[in-house]
Amino acid sequence: MRLPRFLLDLLRGALIGTAEIIPGVSGGTIALIVGVYTGLITSAGHLVRGAVRVVIDGVRGRGLARARAQFAQVRWMLLLPIAIGMGAALVIGAAILGPVIEDYPTQTRAVFAGLIAASIAVPMGMVSHWRPRHVVLAVVAAVSAFALTSIPGSVDADPALPLVFVAAAVAVCALVLPGVSGSFLLLTMGMYAPTIAAVNDRDLVYLGTFAFGAIVGLGLFVTGLQWLLEHRRDATLAVMTGLMVGSLRALWPWQTEDGGVLAPQGDILAILGLFLLGVAIVVALLIIERRLQARQPHDLVEGPK
């Protein structure tokens, strides 16, 4: 693998990691935008199955041949730089973006809304044939996401470790399912502020529990989604499109502290400009990705039909 590709995947991982600390923005959505979604899902599936085989076959004394076969199918040269980029972004972003989001909530939501609105074209364009049932699925998913993001955020508290485990297992779905924001799910469970604080304070007990919960949740969820992408691709992408549309509710710029919708106020033109900036960022990323694919064809976006 050439260095430019490694650096590009580091940047992709950093973008995904940054999205994971922003309520209302889905890491899975960013993975779709930058063209690594299918590659990550496929590799994660093999990695999870390999880890399961290590445990099961090891206990039964069957050796590690089947586990090694799964690990051999992991795209390590994609997975590792993205994981490194994500980890760095989570640490840096928690320290930098957290205060920015807190101090400028209206402006940051406007940018994030532009990002999501423009990125809806990604899963929509990946559906090979839009049929009436796909439209119905997209509408149901959009309504569900709208309802979910309309739930008022609960008050943050000092959570017990079992709750940290469960919250991580649920929130990690955002890495796999575009349109679902892991940070927003944490926010509704009252876990967002404690998690950001744990990252900034290097609370290893909290972070270790969170990581274990995320691994378990990923193991339970990723295999099913991988099967859907392989066998029900258009229907799954239609649902993803709907989820992204519905999730825009969480990013309406003018909101109360508990997420209630307010009428536009203040410098509306500036907010509109920030929204368009978010759109422009996604369009630029898509153009770069398409040019890169034209020069170096790969299957990061196009998965099994």
From TrEMBL:
Annotated TM spans: 21-40, 76-98, 110-128, 134-151, 163-192, 204-228, 268-288
The keyword Transmembrane appears for this protein: yes
Record-linked InterPro entries: VCA0040-like (IPR007163)
Keyword Transmembrane appears in the UniProt entry: yes
Pfam families per record: VCA0040-like (PF04018)
Residues forming coiled coils: none
The entry's keywords: Membrane, Transmembrane, Transmembrane helix
Highest taxon listed in the record's lineage: Bacteria
Name of the protein in question: DUF368 domain-containing protein
Species for this entry: Microbacterium sediminicola
